[in-house]
Amino acid sequence: MNQIGIMGGTFDPIHHGHLLLGHQAREEYHLQEIWFMPSGQPPHKKDHQVTEAQFRWEMAELALEGQEGFRLSDFELCRPGTTYTAQTLALLHEDYPDTRFYFIIGADSLYEIEQWYRPDLVMAQAVLLVADRDYHPMHPRMERQINRLTEKYGAEIFRLHCPEVNISSVEIRAMAARGESLCGLVPDAVRVYIKEKKLYDR
Questions:
Q1: Residue 159: phi, psi to the nearest 5?
Q2: For residue 45, is pLDDT > 90?
Q3: Interatomic CA distance for residues 8 and 55, integer angstroms
Q4: Cα 134–chain centre separation
Q5: Mean pLDDT along residues 149-157
């Protein structure tokens, strides 16, 4: 059976933290490929404008060029309207019945997943691989959250043991808007693209 990692998100913009998680997931859990899957209009991002899909796609293309074991997928971008992870995974299983999917998420998503559309289906259709860091002092420790979700949903959840990278797309957009350098935060080709297209200028 094939083992494929799914890295979802708006990738607005894609950054080194995304790539680091993808590499760690592939190496630590011996996955054949990591599919980077930019979302169309995710339900939890309706409160702000998401950059046009073409620009997000082209930034991801530049970031993944020459990266062994990484593949860019338009599976969600081609679907109209709001895209839900539970539905995406169901469609992936229809198209790839001999594949086991590993859904790569940040620590924040582990604590918020029960607010997603049909979290039971998400956890039934994919193994969750979670960035190994505690999310917020007000939340239970990660191990406790993993155990609770495992017992409640029968989920398979494993940690990704990679160095913590404090990079967020939100901060990158704010830095770009202020005209600050993005060196070291995004691949050089993505940095040049953002500047040329004036993507996050005020």
A1: -90, 150
A2: no
A3: 16
A4: 18
A5: 98
* Residue 199 dihedral angles phi and psi, to the nearest 5°: -65, -40
Q: How far apart are the C-alpha atoms of 202 and 186, rounded to whole Å?
A: 20
Give the separation between CA 59 and CA 188, rounded to whole angstroms.
11
Burial classification of residue 36, based on how many CB atoms lie within 10 Å of its CB (0-12 exposed, 13-18 middle, 19 or more buried): buried
Secondary structure, 3-state, the chain: CEEEEEEEECCCCCCHHHHHHHHHHHHHCCCCEEEEEECCECHHHCCCCCCCHHHHHHHHHHHHCCCCCEEECCCCCCCCCECCHHHHHHHHHHHCCCEEEEEEECHHHHHHHHHCCCHHHHHHHCEEEEECCCCCCCCCCHHHHHHHHHHHHCCCEEEECCCCCCCCHHHHHHHHHCCCCCECCECHHHHHHHHHHCCCCC
Structure tokens that stand for 15 in this block: 């950054």
pLDDT in tens, 98-116: 999 999 999 889 999 999 9
Count other Cβ atoms within 10 Å, centred on residue 158: 15
